[in-house]
Design brief:
Distance between the termini: 35 Å
Strand content: under 5%
Largest sheet: none
Structural class: mainly alpha
Number of domains: 1
Helix content: 40-55%
């Protein structure tokens, strides 16, 4: 199952030495509806931010089934996908990150309803 969902042991070891990334502040809620898609978390956002948004969480789950329920999530959730690639033991590759990035960019490009 996703090579032990991102190689738990590697994540735990690496997460203790990795620095957390701070996500940019969310835009004010009074922005126009079309700003909603533009404000979606990106591949450069933390995994936590991606999972907290239902739309982007679905993209992560599509490419990394079970990531939202992974027992080591607290150790890697403040990291970006790019930061997890080298410590995932091959479970998360640049190809997967690129596919997630493409899906997230497609979401942001869609007009808001």
């Amino acid at each position: 199952m996703l090579k032990a969902i991102l190689a738990t042991a590697a994540l735990v070891a690496a997460a203790t030495t990795a620095s957390a990334q701070t996500a940019p502040a969310a835009p004010p809620a009074d922005h126009a509806a079309h700003a909603d898609h533009a404000a979606l978390p990106t591949v450069n956002s933390s995994i936590k931010d991606l999972l907290e948004n239902p739309t982007t969480a679905a993209v992560l789950e599509k490419h990394l089934p079970g990531v939202s329920q992974h027992p080591a999530r607290p150790q890697f959730q403040d990291m970006t996908l790019e930061q997890v690639v080298p410590i995932s033991g091959g479970a998360l590759t640049q190809t997967i990150v690129d596919a997630i990035d493409a899906d997230l960019k497609a979401l942001a490009a869609q007009p808001a309803h």
